[in-house]
């Protein structure tokens, strides 16, 4: 029972940092989801996210989204989740 109590204490004490990590990982998940959608329609992407052309991927997604009936919220939520996650992570760790 001691391990569970320690985990719950950590989650309670560092809750802002935990939520920050969740938001950052959610942003990464949305990026990967967008990348798979773009690959499905024939847009060339790179698997390791190391190419400079991947930074243009959200802009390309916004250009082609109406053609396929996709929502633009995917692109709008990515930077929001990432920046909010970094802010919460920094706040949670500095507390």
Specify the number of helices: 4
Domain tally: 1
Radius of gyration: 17 Å
Estimate percent helicity.
over 70%
> Which parts are unreliable, with pLDDT below 50 for 5 consecutive residues or more?
none
How far apart are the first and last residues' alpha carbons, in Å?
27 Å
Structural class: mainly alpha
- Mean of pLDDT: 84
Largest sheet: none
Q: What global shape is seen? A: elongated
Order of helices and strands: HHHH
Number of distinct beta strands: 0
Strand content: under 5%
Can you describe this structure?
It is a single chain. The chain is 76% helix and 0% strand. It has 95 residues and is mainly alpha-helical. The protein has one domain. The two termini are 27 Å apart. 15% of the residues are buried.
Compose a concise summary of this entry.
With 95 residues, the protein is mainly α.
Task: Considering the chains and any ligands shown, give keywords for the structure.
4 helices, single chain, 95 residues, elongated, mainly alpha
